[in-house]
Write a structure and sequence with these properties.
Znf_C2H2_type, zinc, zinc-finger, 228 residues, five-stranded antiparallel β-sheet, zinc ion binding, C2H2-type domain-containing protein
């Protein structure tokens, strides 16, 4: 049973200035959040939603880069304490004087609709994550949903001239003669690659998150990816 809802974890993180670096559904619904601290050092939180475990990866002023883990976070009040100041979450780990309270950054509006049910999300990656999870009522089942998302990506390739998918099979036709865009999809395999850096991903939402959050890949033609 899932302890924390991944979508809400991402929303709560955005409220405190974190951005979603990755989401790995098969790894205990792992949400990876990142942001820079006041010194410009990168902080990372790994949040396993199925168990309520949070791993922090921080640069301590005396100990250098260190890791802490806290388990059994089963309510969002505790999670918000970690998001607000990750250095105090270890019960005997990191502690520091809190900075003066500042207004949280404004949340992005939900403007990107799911192509199946129409529910809106804050980014293309979040919309794809909702769809590929199999929780969309119009496309239940993660494997069927991810296969359909792969078909979307192959159509994007045809229209843009870029290569986003890794499957090598040629376009085929199904029994009624219509085009079968999902040919080449492999369940559990690395089905996508970033056209800018070549990194491979199993799911479309992971590729979209990567191209949205990695500065080196934001300006590439990967920005042509849409999920509609």
């Amino acid at each position: 049973m899932t302890t924390l809802d991944p979508t809400r974890v991402i929303d709560e993180g955005e409220y405190y200035g974190w951005y979603k670096h990755d989401y790995q559904w098969s790894q205990g619904e792992l949400v990876i959040l990142r942001k820079l601290d006041g010194n410009g050092d990168q902080m990372q939180l790994n949040i396993w939603c199925t168990t309520g475990t949070v791993g922090s990866y921080l640069n301590h002023p005396r100990r250098g880069k260190s890791q802490l883990f806290r388990r059994d976070i089963d309510d969002y009040r505790e999670l918000r304490e970690v998001l607000d100041n990750p250095r105090v979450h270890g019960y005997g780990g990191y502690y520091e004087r809190r900075a003066p309270a500042q207004a949280p950054p404004a949340r992005a509006e939900r403007t990107v609709p799911c192509p199946a049910c129409g529910r809106k999300y804050r980014s293309m990656a979040d919309t794809a994550q909702h769809f590929e999870s199999g929780s969309c009522p119009h496309c239940p089942g993660a494997d069927d949903a991810r296969r359909m998302a792969y078909g979307y990506a192959r159509q994007m390739e045809a229209g843009s001239g870029m290569r986003f998918t890794t499957g090598q099979k040629l376009l085929t036709f199904d029994g009624d003669g219509s085009q079968e865009w999902s040919s080449g999809y492999t369940e559990g395999g690395d089905n996508y690659s970033c056209p800018a850096c070549g990194k491979q991903f199993r799911a479309l939402h992971s590729l979209l998150s990567h191209t949205q959050s990695r500065p080196q890949c934001q300006g590439s033609n990967a920005g042509l990816l849409t999920f509609r």
